[in-house]
Automatic annotation (TrEMBL):
Superkingdom: Bacteria
Annotated ranges, domain Serine aminopeptidase S33: 30-310
Membrane-spanning residues: none
Gene3D superfamilies: alpha/beta hydrolase
Protein name: Lysophospholipase
Amino acid sequence: MDVNRDTFSFPSSDKSSALHACAWYVPGQAPRAVIQLTHGMSEHIARYDDFACHLVQRGLFVCGHDHIGHGKSVALIDRLCCLPCDADVCMEEDINILRREATARFSLEGIPWFLFGHSMGSYLVRACLLDGAADGYRQRACDTDPCAAGLAGAILCGTGQVPKPLSIAGVALAQLIARARGADYRSAFLDDFGTGTFERAVPENRTSFDWLNSDPSGVDAYVSDELCGVMFSAGGYRAIGHLTGRVSAPDCGKLLPNGFPILMIAGADDPVGNRGRGVQAVARALRAGSQAQVDVHLYPGMRHEILNEPRHTDVYDDVDRWLDEVLGENTQEK
């Protein structure tokens, strides 16, 4: 089955960036659902090509984009991960914009729509859910505003639960540095505050990014990618702190529609999810005060980037099964 990869651009809500986007699909095939991918910090959407192609083989349409300050959405490579202090608001709105753009460009009206977010992307998807993206769950999309129809479900990959005091401290520190040195300033101290605990979670690490993958070759692929691993600016860290604090309320689930399906997947050795404990805490919060259907899968021996782990097909299979259940289909043999 030949998979088309169409690239296009659309204007960001920041009023200045043209965002690079990609759609994966089989021409002439009516998709049974759409999966919109949202990538993590300091990476880009092309890294999801294998996963996207797998989903297309399963009869899905897949789309995603490079966030502001990331990947091919940046004109100059030295501007990678230089983000304004309100970048989280822009990135969340850009997810909605892509949904409208892709719906119109590829005639996707009325097709069940799922959001998939990894790492920072998972926090952005959680923000979308809290801000009403799931409202109108299971309603048919309307032509004028496809986002008004809600979502069919959401997949949170490599997410975590940041304690509120830590988010507040991170925002205050990043804001102080941004005011003193500018939002584009890269602070090693701030970077260590933001991600240093992840690096130190892996004893005798070979690189600063061993926490991403249990397979050294997977780590090396990330390190050798010039669009990955770039230090976030002070403005970017301020935005991340604000985002994580906003979505970590213990009763966030009360805003979700009854029965709304959420799949949470993470490595059991992922420090971002506190080796599963943070993932379970998020699941409890999402279930609290609602009847949301939250399924959790933790993968022993896997770290943060479970889609790039040697046993990533285990993850693919679980995603397939969950999608089949939500869509009311039994297509495992396709």
